[in-house]
Amino acid sequence: MENIDGYLMKYTNLVTGWQYRFFVLNNEAGFLEYFVNEQSRPQKPRGMLPLAGAVISPSDEDSHTFTVNAISGEQYKLRATDAKERQHWVSRLQICTQHHTEAMGKMMSQAQGQHRDLIQSIEGLPAAPGLSPLDQDLLMLKATSMATMNCLNECLHILHLQQVARQRGSLGGPTIEWLEPKLPDILKNGSSSLGSFTTGEGPLEGSRLELSSPESCSFSGQEDISADDEAEDGFSDKEEDLGAVEEERSVILHLLSQLKLGMDLTRVVLPTFILEKRSLLEMYADFMSHPDLFVAITDGSSPEDRMVRFVEYYLTSFHEGRKGAIAKKPYNPIIGESFHCSWKVPRRPEASKEPSQGSPDPAASQEPYQVRFTAEQVSHHPPVSGFYAECQERRMCVNTHVWTKSKFMGMSIGVSMIGEGCLYLLEHDEEYTFTLPCAYARSILTVPWVELGGKVNINCAKSGYSAVITFQTKPFYGGKLHKVTAEVKQNSTNAVVCRVQGEWNGALEFSYTSGEMRVVDVTKLPVTRKSVRPVEKQGPTESRRLWQHVTESLREKDIEKATEHKRLLEERQRTEERHRAETETAWRTRYFDREGEGWVYHKPLWKNSAFKS
């Protein structure tokens, strides 16, 4: 195998796009390395990908582009000058990948031989005082060696299945389904009578769903949600452990054997037994679980103070979204689905006039502030959600749109939250733009858990302050979980005015240039319960009413029944989508309007003259 080198275009990020880089295929070491240019080749490579177990995928979009997906989950998206050059690189990379993947198998055989030798040596120890094959340390050594070999064998098996699937090209279809109960015959026959269905054991109790006809798939107007109908949320389902993961392990292994590293999972149908009992739209509402910190942002006495307050609110907004240590997936929202709720926030003394000595605090006698939240699924492909929250009394609101894009990363699933949010403080005429971190579901074969990763940027153009937040993923060896760091800067001087370090689901330490330090422990912050209308008062496309039969079945641990209800909802969505395509009818959103590349709430505070300065 000969080494090859040359210039290719590499996709870096949304800002800089495609950049020419000098690539070297190091066949002997099994690495694809790249440099800024050919002259910098004697220096350390700018980056390198191990090719053992990698997947090389020519793009279907054009004849120039291809991707290299390493077993670690890292991906290079590359572009050659023409189809011939792409084929040259792809074929050489595939040969190198196959060679080093097979070498991994040989190394496994050697490791297995060494493992057998270790076991035989321990069990063959001669009887001697103080030395026995049953010594606790020796038994631990045997168990550790056995567990390591089992883990490596399983990983190698999955890797082999991935390679076979790639070579056979068996993943050409648009959707991969989990092994679950098949669709009822009523759906197989293409019937539009989706109101109810029967199983082999008779009618499915409670299966009557409120399905809109294709003609009513778009909304003619907006509905104002009355806060008078809302009551403090009593929905407190605690997610149980995933014992079902062990029971359904063969199902998971079967799916993993068909997936490619880096593969987009948008159209992959997930098994019902890993679902959380709520919609993704409702999960977004957890960003407001500390509404007191949200409304306190505008109380900042200076631009610097307000930026630090926003960073504090931002860092404390993620932990409540995970109800436990185990990762479960919320329901994928149906297009047109919405979720509404609100929070009551007691007025703080500093937000009111100072009481005179001996007189009662006026804040205690005033009505609490109200923070209202609205979320809507505005697009199905790609899956985009819009959500908006406002506090009219404080003249502040936040508007966000998010496209959740997931991909397979070997033993993990990565979810990129693509989009942008903007906080508006109308009292100060300030706008704070911000992005969102990536989320990762780790250890999907055993006990899944969630961590956040990536850099987040917050910027206020008017005040000239910005912040960079870095969510750090755990290193392979050692290191702490859920670490996060942040810096708040004054842009004109590039001076750091505040630093933050700690864990996003634990203690956060704020350090100021003045020498002041303070600690915020998110586990000790009071969580304000949201107020939600009862299901019977909700519209047919509101999250809890829409998914109520799936949720009830999951509570009853009836996975098959939950799966059938879930399939009905998804089939209705597909039926209405086909009808819109046939009649060339555009989908009309209810609460959000498309503006440029984003989605904006239809009645935001900043467009209301009554709330402008």
Automatic annotation (TrEMBL):
GO terms for molecular function: sterol binding. Transmembrane segments: none annotated. Residues 1-98 form the PH domain. Gene3D superfamilies: 1.10.287.2720, 2.40.160.120, 3.30.70.3490, Pleckstrin-homology domain (PH domain)/Phosphotyrosine-binding domain (PTB) (2.30.29.30). CDD domains: PH_ORP10_ORP11. Residues 190-199, 213-223 have a biased composition (Polar residues). InterPro entries: OSBP_sf, Oxysterol-bd, Oxysterol-bd_CS, PH-like_dom_sf, PH_domain. SMART domains: PH. It catalyses: a 1,2-diacyl-sn-glycero-3-phospho-(1D-myo-inositol 4-phosphate)(out) + a 1,2-diacyl-sn-glycero-3-phospho-L-serine(in) = a 1,2-diacyl-sn-glycero-3-phospho-(1D-myo-inositol 4-phosphate)(in) + a 1,2-diacyl-sn-glycero-3-phospho-L-serine(out). Residues 225-237 have a biased composition (Acidic residues). SUPFAM superfamilies: Oxysterol-binding protein-like, PH domain-like. Residues 190-237 are annotated as: Disordered. The keyword Transport applies. Plays a role in regulating ADIPOQ and FABP4 levels in differentiating adipocytes and is also involved in regulation of adipocyte triglyceride storage. Weakly binds 25-hydroxycholesterol. Interacts with OSBPL9 to function as lipid transfer proteins. This is Oxysterol-binding protein. It comes from Sparus aurata.
